[in-house]
Design a protein that fits this description.
alpha+beta, about 500 residues, Beta-lactamase, PCN-bd_Tpept, elongated, 19 helices, about 40% helix, five-stranded antiparallel sheet, single chain
Length: about 500
Amino acid sequence: MNRPLRHIAVFCGILTLALLLRATWVQFARNDDLANHEKNRRVQIEAFSHPRGDIIVGGKSITGSKKTSGTDFAYKRTFKEGPMYAPVTGYFSQAQGATLLEGVHNGILSGNDDRLFIKRTLDMLTGEKQQGGDVVTTIDPKAQKAAYDGLVKLNAKGAVVALDPRSGKVLALASTPSYDPSVFAGISADEGREFKRLDRRKDKPLSNRALREIYPPGSTFKILTAAAALEHGVVTDIDEPTDAETPYKLPLSSTRIGNDVPDSNCDKVSVKTGMQWSCNNVFLDLADKVGKDKMRETAEQFGFNEQQYVPVRAVASSYPKDLDKPQTALTGMGQGSLTSTPLQMAMVTAGLANDGKVMKPYLVEELRGPDLSTIEKAEPDQLNQAVSEDTAEKVQEMMENTVENGTANKARIDGVTVGGKTGTAQHGADVNDERPYAWFVSYAKSPGGDGGSPVAVAVFVDPSQMDIPRSEIAGGKLGAPIAKAVMEAVLER
């Protein structure tokens, strides 16, 4: 054999060896990755080859599986009262994938979770079709309906989060405008067009405003400012007059900030009276005196600057580090560069209602197998003792006075002790360009007073598409009735 032929033979041998090595690598080293890749058609066909487990609310399934024809996918997902529960379930679509609980607990719902291995093996031996397990939520169906119906009635973009302060259970999680996950659960062209239409809408129905959107919290943040001032010794007596004048001159600035009520209601008044009438001057002054570091420290004790997992991811609310004195003062009234999710303000309210103890919020009570056996059971878990019990009780006293005698009076419930705080948040490049956001936070104590507070609520309303005068945009007018309805629904249990 001459030299050129030997070179070609060696080269071909090297190529063959490389091909064998690559095939071996793909077959063994990357086997699991490729077998389970979301773009693998076989994986997709298998995912829709059998009925899926269900998401449970109040003992009843709010999801289902429907037999299909004319496609490789044998089943598709169905949703009961889809728009009301979409912020909880998310969607599970043959074309669009999975989100929220449908995505986070896909392994349990599909039956592919490692903890269901024995069940899958037995099914293979007996010839049974693979079955999925169930995800049992903490949602209270009546509270969820009250939250969703309240937002729909307003025809507003908004969100409601209700928590059980004692445990951290999520009792309601609503976001509007919403969508029906059933309408694009399949793979047809019409369903694809429907998803694109929803995705392009300016009012963002696919967005989860309760967990994934951040906004300035406005005056609802004053409850945290009051807690910080008490915790760090800036205030010792909530009934003692302050030296905060109105209109208030921001530190190192010529800007003066007034109030929505007459100056006589707010000039140099106590923190308790300042909460009652939502006096900006009192809380701007408190935040300045507490200082940026201790304000941020207190905010972080309640969960700010960290993502929360319920187990669905909630974006982090923000109390920034690098603030000057006027910016720090503005955070005292929930403005400036401060941002929050509705979930976060519900956590702040719940923590104060629970004597300063912030519980980790959670949305899933139990994961169970196809045979209804318990795979995983949630247990309440404390996030932080954010403030002392004494501080929390003083803030409760102020919030309860605000409901009885102040701006939060629309949240009153006969025979029940309720604490609340209104909020109106300016936003936009020029804060007067945009219609303000309306907020309301509240909690209710058990009748009789010996069961703690079973519910805390945060309501957020973006009135940009509402046909009402700017003067009617206020947390007490728009948010308080919704919060009251949610609290009543929980207390009825």
